[in-house]
Write a structure and sequence with these properties.
The structure is a homotrimer. By secondary structure, chain A is of the alpha/beta class. Chain A contains 5 helices and 37 strands. Among the domains of chain A are: 3-88, Udp-n-acetylmuramoylalanyl-d-glutamate--2,6- Diaminopimelate Ligase, Chain: A, domain 1, CATH 3.40.1390; 156-303, 3 Solenoid (UDP N-Acetylglucosamine Acyltransferase, domain 1). Helices cover 15% and strands 28% of the residues of chain A. In chain A, the strands form 5 sheets. Chain A has an 11-stranded mixed sheet with strand order 8-11-14-17-22-25-28-31-34-36-37, with helices on one face. Chain A has a 10-stranded parallel sheet with strand order 6-9-12-15-18-23-26-29-32-35, with no helix packed on it. In chain A, β19 (183-186) and β20 form a beta hairpin. Chain A is flat, with a radius of gyration of 27 Å. Chains in contact: A-B, A-C, B-C. Chains A and C meet through β2, α2, α3, α4 and α5 of A and β19, β20, α3 and α4 of C.
Chain lengths: 344, 344, 344
């Protein structure tokens, strides 16, 4: 596709020079001939002189007068890139229509233009919205609701009474609506409390590979609209995750924790149960969170504190060797014997 | 169902007043009309005045004389709740009988009243006990033993020679009996040591979604009766997990570690390999455990120590800023130059 | 099998005494009659006097003159063990040939002597090498390449355009080539950037149960030859993992990190994104790695540092209580009031 044509399709202004044929996308620093790159962050403007991309999409402010590449000016290069991927890379179509080797319960309701692959199981009273894609090995046990345009990648499992809104994407191996860790300690052992609540996943949510999200114990677990989970995220029963959160891989939330809107959560973070986390919080990777956290916080560490505090404490820890030495020197000066102290 | 009827079925004493119709269970603080709540912990007795539950199950000691709700007195409200769930919430039945699209090897032995869903695979020489349920996408490779009343949720995989006792529940995506991380470092690379041991899961065990439990390398890996694993727990080869343990999500045990009975393990805990952990230990979330731990310990931290010690050390760390300041003031008083010290 | 016959098959020298019949392998300290044990590490030579193994494989240097067991001398007992497993334990064969209930797209190319189980899905334009085994529930979506002799355990999912070299083993529930966590933050929410790169897995790689390895965003993610991943390892998009790495369970690498050859990574380690890690590094369990790490490093902690430094700092932390006391005693000696200090 010609650069001018791509510009038009992504809503940008073609500036030239030239009008190269483009076949793919690459980072500014790796792009070669016939590739288009995107300058999201003006700080990387320094790479514009070096890039070998045939075309670069950037804001008006970042456009250099002298340039070797053909430019497309766009107010939001991030959005432009998301659009360009759809245009330059055709989607792989692995299956179409409803395959005769899919199992579809006669009480299920299937929308228009739905694709269901061989060996997918759609159980009793499921309702599948228009344009949904259900891949091979997916199991929708019973009374599942999929809004329109949902895509389930292979081998997704959904437990009964789970509700998904429109435009959700669920990656392979994810388990939605499984039983929470609910047990009654009794004298002669541990008694299971059957989990009978629901899982509600609002629209535009994406769930990573091998995630597990538990249903509510009696009420519901909820994932807010637009939220994205990376791979292997665990969400315990009765959690309520806000809107437009980004939760990185291998993070876990114990039961009944409420995470505010627009949280940014790093990888391998753990949240204790029954906590309340305000909106717009940031949690750095591997943090262990306990306690209610006010909106706008930036936390780090194990146990996690305000990130500035943890950074400062980590600085002190790295200077402990010198501190021990300094105290010893003071003791020597004062005639106090450290060894004696040590034995106390 | 009337409250008096529920009281009878769960072995409680109906005390009234009234005899409301009940349709579901809810926490004391969220219950509304037609719901029953349970007071497990006398400390929450303060909520009895405020609850809008139509009925509350509690011990004789917690029963208030004046009350707006209809009461059921029960010696163990935790157990009562587990029973009430079974009565008030009918189980979802997604499939019944042995489906023609299940694959069952002719050498497998299937008990009475077994349900096997479409696209389940039951391989050679498997033995399936009475009343087992095997959901869609489950793969029982070969020589698997399921005791009576086991339930395998969809997409569970079981490797050869795995043995499960009665009443086990395995959630979706769990992998039982996979190869452990056994490799021989040789001069020209890394040689796989084929894993040929067994996995034994005793009765009444529950395995969470997307767990992975390795088979023994030569001997066996074992999960003790009544133990419950939350989602995404990893158990390495040759581990022996005791009875009635509770292991929270995303915890991992490296190979050959022995965990005693009734362990309580928080989320994201890691155990080194070849450790011996006594009975009745508690490990707080995200702890990193190395070393043999005596029975009855309560450990915390990374690296983990006695929880009291870690709490105390964390307290010291939070006061390090002041300690540095105090030492500096002493140095000033003594005429020692801190800057000079710092450069050493 | 007779010990002398086993010696011949594994390339060892049979030394006797006797020539016992052997049926299985066990650790030196657990072996009984009719079992063969292996002495990998001369440090464990002390167990030779106590072992009840009928036969022990060891190096010439470790061979005791007086012994109760029949000996096989081998230059590399680790390699000998890997070979002996193959001889003494026949592989389980759960299925053979291409099952009529497998779904194979007519555009797929299937090599010689391939086994594909019921309910496996092999999509358009897949190329399956000779002697591959594809178990039940595996989904090879489209344009997948499997080199010869690959084994996919049940319920593995592979996304489009993934390439595996020869002799790879993939355990159940693993997801290869899933979408990375690529999103464009835009004013009105979060926009998905469709992931269109590839995943390349070189020869002799083993992937543990329930791992998730993301495809490249535009270019590729790559796992080097001979590398072994334990269970539930997460590899983000665009990572490049070197050759002959050993990565233990529940470890995660955020996107675009480059891990050098022969890395030894403990369990539950986390790597930040966009880091460069040199060859021959060791990372102890649960470490949190940020920053570029030079070749040959041994790192530990959260945040991770040189393991010696972290060990030393942990030592200081365990002595903090005494340090606080010492400083207080100095203050008392100098007539400074600690309480006053504390309030500042």
């Amino acid at each position: 596709m010609r650069a001018s044509s791509l510009a038009e399709k992504i809503g940008g202004v073609f500036e030239g020079p030239g009008n190269p044929e483009l076949d793919s996308i690459a980072p500014l620093t790796e792009a070669r001939d016939a590739q288009v790159a995107f300058l999201h962050n003006p700080a990387y403007g320094k790479f514009l002189e070096l890039t070998e991309a045939s075309c670069v999409v950037l804001t008006k402010e970042s456009l250099p007068t002298a340039r070797r590449f053909s430019a497309i000016v766009h107010p939001d290069p991030h959005r432009a890139m998301a659009l360009a991927v759809e245009i330059l890379y055709p989607a792989e179509i692995e299956f179409e229509g409803i395959h005769k080797n899919a199992h579809i319960d006669p009480t299920a309701t299937i929308g228009n233009n739905v694709a269901i692959a061989p060996f997918a199981f759609v159980g009793p009273e499921c309702v599948i919205g228009d344009n949904c894609r259900i891949s091979s090995g997916c199991v929708l046990s019973a009374k599942i609701h999929l809004g329109p345009n949902c895509a389930l990648h292979p081998n997704v499992t959904i437990y009964p009474n789970t509700w998904l809104g429109e435009n959700c994407i669920v990656h392979s191996g994810a388990v939605l609506g499984s039983d929470g860790f609910g047990f009654a300690p009794v004298k002669d052992g541990i008694l299971k409390v059957r989990q009978v609540g629901k899982l509600v996943i609002e629209q535009d949510v994406e769930i990573g590979a091998n995630c597990a999200i538990d249903r509510g114990s009696f009420t519901e677990t909820r994932i807010g609209r637009g939220t994205k989970l990376d791979n292997m995220v665990h969400i315990g029963h009765n959690c309520v995750i806000g809107e437009y959160c980004l939760i990185a891989a291998q993070t876990g939330l114990a039961g009944s924790t409420v995470l505010g809107n627009r949280a940014m959560v790093g990888g391998q973070v753990g949240f204790a149960g029954h906590q309340k986390i305000g909106d717009n919080c940031v949690f750095l990777a591997k943090s262990g969170i306990k306690g209610n956290i006010p909106a706008g916080s930036r936390f780090f560490g194990y146990p996690a504190k305000d990130a500035m505090v943890t950074h400062r404490e980590n600085g002190y820890i790295s200077r402990l060797g010198k501190l021990f030495k300094r105290v010893k020197e003071i003791e020597e000066k004062l005639g106090v014997h450290e060894e004696q102290q040590e034995e106390k």
